[in-house]
Amino acid sequence: MTVDASTLQDRNDVPRACGPRTHCRFTGRSKIRSDRAYFVRAWLRSPLRTGAQLPSSSDLARVMADAVDPALPGAIVELGPGTGVVTAALVARGVDPSRLVLVETNPVFCRLLQTRYGEDRVVSHDAYAAPRLLRRLDIGPIAAVVSGLPLLTQPAWRRQRLLLSCLRLGAPDAAFVQFTYFYRSPIPVRPDVIATDVSPMVWRNLWPARVWRYRLAAAS
């Protein structure tokens, strides 16, 4: 499972310390500054597709990762991982990188993720079509889907379809994890179909956000 090389931009778009199939040598503050710069440029080029102006904070990433149970068997699919802040939090939580499937459309973000987690973990694809892709690649069962997508730029029916399609590919008790800057759930759900829980507000993030976790209700 490799990213489509024809969609990637030239390697000059990537920090020169990063090479294919190697871990990025940017660490600490230099890595944070680099990631922020890439995010800002992506947002300026396509604000609705990128959603946030900056990567999620480490606090928000940690809360999202905490919503995933590493003991649950199966793949961990991340939709819109960006520069990989939440990905790093998942690994720190105990998720083996070999379980990761990172679905990203931005070619620069794809290259960054490849250098950090390996080409075989990154798929250049429309996240809203990810369930169909995962079925075609025979990836499953899915332990969790972690989404950094700007869902509220999409109509409600598309958000609902993505949620249900992902959960139906999941193992029992698999979760769909999504952050939002708004108080209410970013996905309209019926409680008899989808069970939800939500984190307290994560204040140390631009902007403050909450993390919603969705599961199929027992009756469904």
Taken from the alpha-carbon principal axes, the silhouette is globular
Q: Please summarize the sheet with the most strands.
A: 7 strands, mixed
Strand content: 15-25%
Work out the helix count: 7
> What is the CATH class?
Alpha Beta
* CATH-defined superfamily: Vaccinia Virus protein VP39
Count of spatially separate domains: 1
Task: Tell me what you see in this structure.
This protein has 220 residues and is of the alpha/beta class. The protein has a single domain (5-216), classed as Vaccinia Virus protein VP39 (Rossmann fold, 3-Layer(aba) Sandwich). 32% of the residues lie in helices and 19% in strands. The protein contains 7 helices and 7 strands. Strands 3-2-1-4-5-7-6 form a 7-stranded mixed beta sheet, sandwiched between helices. Strand 2, helix 5 (107-117) and strand 3 (122-124) form a beta-alpha-beta unit. The model is unreliable at 1-27 (pLDDT under 50).
Primary descriptors:
single chain; 220 residues; alpha/beta; Rossmann fold; seven-stranded mixed sheet; 7 helices; 19% strand; disordered N terminus
In short:
With 220 residues, the chain is of the alpha/beta class. 32% of the residues lie in helices and 19% in strands.
Give the arrangement of secondary structure elements:
Blueprint: H1 28-45, H2 47-50, H3 58-66, E1 75-79, H4 85-93, E2 100-104, H5 107-117, E3 122-124, H6 130-136, E4 142-147, H7 156-167, E5 170-180, E6 194-198, E7 210-216
Parallel strand pairs: 1-2, 1-4, 2-3, 4-5
Antiparallel strand pairs: 5-7, 6-7
Helix pairs in contact: 3-4
